[in-house]
Amino acid sequence: MGGGIYAIEDWGTGYWPEWPDGERYLQRDDQKTGEGELPSYFPSHQYGMVGVLKQLMDECHYDAIKESFNSPRNRPSRFEKMCIYAGLAIIIKK
Predict the structure, then answer these.
(1) Among residues 16, 21, 40, 51, which one has the fewest Cβ atoms lying within 10 Å of its Cβ?
(2) Backbone angles phi and psi of 6, in degrees to 5
């Protein structure tokens, strides 16, 4: 199948608990680190379109997802580009 340009608007509704696919954002502090260290996992909201966009981010750089640095690359991403703005995401598919 060919490419295209896709726009996802109003994705911030995933933070609204009264929205059908939304959920209230909960700040989590379950990742303790030493001073100056970054956590291995950043607590993150995964509901509604917010979660969908995070899954699309994986596709955007799919060829980098592999077992180790020396492992063969996966297939190339189906996306040429993904741009995320407040309330709007643009995906350019190859």
Answers:
(1) 40
(2) -120, 140
